[in-house]
Write a structure and sequence with these properties.
The complex is a heterodimer of chains A (257) and B (369). Chain A has 257 residues and is mainly α. Chain A has two domains: 1-70, no CATH class; 88-256, no CATH class. Helices cover 85% and strands 0% of the residues of chain A. Chain A has eleven helices and no strands. Chain A is globular, with a radius of gyration of 23 Å. With 369 residues, chain B is mainly α. Chain B is 66% helix and 0% strand. Chain B has helices spanning 7-21, 24-58, 65-101, 104-107, 128-143, 146-158, 165-189, 193-210, 216-225, 231-245, 251-285, 297-300, 303-306, 312-316, 325-330. The longest helix of chain B is centred in the N-terminal third of the chain and has 37 residues, at 65-101. Chain B has 15 helices and no strands. Classes of the chains: A mainly alpha (257), B mainly alpha (369).
Chain lengths: 257, 369
């Protein structure tokens, strides 16, 4: 049951949030209007649709932030706390892995990218003649599934590594700098067709729902473990999740060919 | 999210959005349904994993379950509205602009390389509208990026206000803006992408060495966050447009190249923001004669009195800081040294990994933000 007090609270918070999200959108509105009116010297097309879209964006951003505060942040912190209380490191690893693997494997953006990449890479031009349509489709399917599994695996593994780092208190920048050196080396060896895909995959994994939950989990964990600083150790999971798919996909590209 | 992918999908998405402008009202419902479906699909595995672990492993009921469920619903609905609104209002216009800015008709009076074959790198300065657009669109899309808002909120909460959410977001947005502008310049000049990226990371390494340690993880995280829902479609459209208009550029490589810039430069700008603040703070700390009525540094017991007075260099050298790590964890109260985190009152129960840490009841000595 929702009491009047809660409804009022939610309404007030929402109004404040809508105003805040409007402020966040001012730069983008100014940019688009400035270029349309002064650089291209044209009228704004379809003003009704534009205003409708802006209203939707504002309401959506406000709702999203409210949802973060009510849902995703408390959930991530509470689970981190519960795992720390349980004190079982293997279960924590299992949770981190399945969260990374599950969200990325089902990620709609990754499914679309994998399908597109399969069409581009598993093409008659690169395989040579003598393939029937059936076989080609099957190989594409295999490629897409493998790619999704590889990216999901990489994020799962990187979250485990990130959790180990939080527990042990290792410094983040060794991993990140080492990772980028590895990426640079692998880029030299990887086939050209996979490089763009690999960097794309890195962007796909940091989705808008995964990021808050991961951040809350890392910070919650770091604030529960003795001697860890949430600022110093809690952040960094997202950086891992964005970096590891590049390495894994480049490796996959090297092995695939 | 459907939208937050890079080059390959950005291309496809652009064409869809343009078609949609013709009948915005008709397609709106369809968009809402489509986006809602994909957002649900995005949330489903998270919910499944959480429920499975909560029921089978942790075996503890979630606190405030109704509030959590409302929060989840708000996130799903909010993202749906957000994405649909962007598709209806901003993406078609922004992507059309990115294409027009780089089209021969627009560049014709500025860059006449169609007829007289002037290479683009000779007249690079004539692309000023493109650079301005790149800067503004990089800045404004990053300010509205939901993932960045989430991380910035978390950072402000964790640092006890030492890192301001708005300040962090502006620093990241400025980094993306500069990065995209430089990336556009690179496409015009035809310089190798690897050169810029490697130089950028060398710069990041040097900065990491000097920057306040507690900002480093946050800075790296903000690099990963920027390549998301709002930024990628518009920036990719700009990169692809520019690369396909200038002869000798490869659309696939250069389109994603801009994204690489967008995730590298925020690291530099966030580290720089922290360094600037740290430098201002140190300058302030060196003038003890200056009165400060609010919070005298001696009473704070934070970094500036305990550590900076004895050895200001050791702690800030991120790469040599392992030896001082243990001390710093005990003295962690402000931005330089890791901010103070308000401990939970029931902290006693959640420390199975070790014993309870002393609760430091201190405020930041000074707040120049």
């Amino acid at each position: 049951m929702l009491s009047w007090q809660t409804v009022k609270m939610i309404l007030q918070g929402s109004l404040r949030a809508i105003w805040a999200s409007f402020r966040d959108l001012i730069p983008i509105i100014i940019t688009v209007v400035f270029f349309q009116l002064f650089v291209f010297q044209r009228e704004l097309p379809n003003v009704a649709a534009l205003l409708l879209g802006l209203a939707l964006v504002m309401a959506g951003l406000a709702l999203f932030i409210r949802g973060l505060e009510m849902g995703l942040f408390p959930l991530g912190e509470q689970m981190a706390k519960d795992f720390a209380r349980k004190g079982s490191v293997p279960w924590l690893f299992a949770f981190a892995f399945s969260m990374g693997f599950g969200t990325v494997f089902a990620e709609p953006a990754l499914i679309a990218v994998a399908q597109k990449a399969a069409d581009l890479i598993v093409a008659p031009e690169s395989l040579g003649d003598g393939w029937t349509e059936q076989e080609l489709r099957q190989r594409r399917q295999t490629f897409a599934i493998t790619l999704r599994a590889v990216v999901a695996l990489s994020v799962g593994c990187s979250l485990i590594l990130g959790v180990v780092r939080i527990i042990r208190g290792w410094q983040l920048h060794y991993f990140i700098i080492g990772g980028y050196i590895l990426v640079t080396i692998l880029t030299c060896f990887a086939p050209a067709g996979v490089i763009g895909l690999a960097y794309d995959a890195g962007g796909v994994t940091t989705s808008t729902i995964t990021v808050p939950l991961t951040a809350a989990l890392g910070v919650g964990l770091a604030s529960c473990i003795q001697g860890r600083n949430p600022m110093l150790d809690g952040f960094g999971l997202i950086a891992f999740a964005a970096l590891s798919p590049i390495i894994f996909v480049l490796l996959m590209g090297i092995l695939w060919y | 999210m459907v939208l937050n992918s890079g080059g390959i999908q950005g291309l496809e998405r652009g064409t869809v959005a343009i078609v949609a402008t013709d009948s915005a009202e008709d397609s709106l419902t369809w968009y809402l349904v489509e986006c809602f479906g994909s957002t649900i699909w995005n949330v489903l595995p998270i919910a499944a994993v959480v429920i499975v672990f909560q029921v089978l492993v942790l075996r503890r009921p979630l606190q405030n379950l109704p509030s959590l469920s409302w929060g989840f619903l708000f996130v799903v609905l909010g993202l749906t509205f957000f994405l649909v609104g962007l598709e209806v209002a901003l993406f078609p216009l922004g992507q059309a602009m990115a294409r027009q800015l780089t089209s021969p008709e627009f560049l014709g009076d500025q860059v006449d390389f169609g007829g007289r074959e002037i290479p683009a790198q000779v007249v690079w300065y004539r692309f000023y509208w493109t650079y301005l657009f790149a800067f503004l669109i990089g800045f404004s899309t990053t300010v509205a990026e939901p993932s960045l808002i989430a991380v910035a909120m978390k950072a402000e909460e964790v640092s006890g206000g030492a890192v301001r959410a708005r300040g962090l977001r502006f620093a990241v947005a400025l980094g993306v803006a500069v990065g995209i502008t430089l990336g556009a310049f690179r496409i015009v000049m035809g310089h190798p992408l690897a050169l810029y990226i490697i130089l950028g990371y060398v710069f990041v390494m040097i900065q990491t060495y000097w920057a306040p340690r507690s900002i480093v993880p946050l800075a790296y995280d903000s690099g990963g966050v920027t390549t998301s829902t709002v930024t990628v479609p518009l920036v990719t459209a700009l990169g692809l447009g520019l690369a396909s208009q200038i002869p000798g550029r490869n659309p696939l490589v250069d389109g994603f190249g801009l994204i690489a810039f967008a995730s590298l430069f925020p690291i530099i700008s966030v580290l720089g923001y922290a360094q600037l603040e740290h430098w201002l703070q140190q300058r302030w700390a060196k003038k003890p004669t200056q009165p400060n009525t609010k919070s005298p540094p001696l009473a704070a017991g934070g970094y500036s009195t305990r550590v900076a007075a004895t050895d200001p260099n050791t702690l800030n050298h991120g790469l040599t800081a392992i030896s001082t790590r243990i001390e710093s964890n005990q003295a962690s109260t402000n931005l330089e040294d890791g901010p103070h985190f308000p401990r939970e009152p029931q902290g006693k129960t959640c420390n199975q990994f070790g014993s309870k840490r002393a609760n430091l009841q201190t405020r930041r000595p000074c707040d120049l933000n």
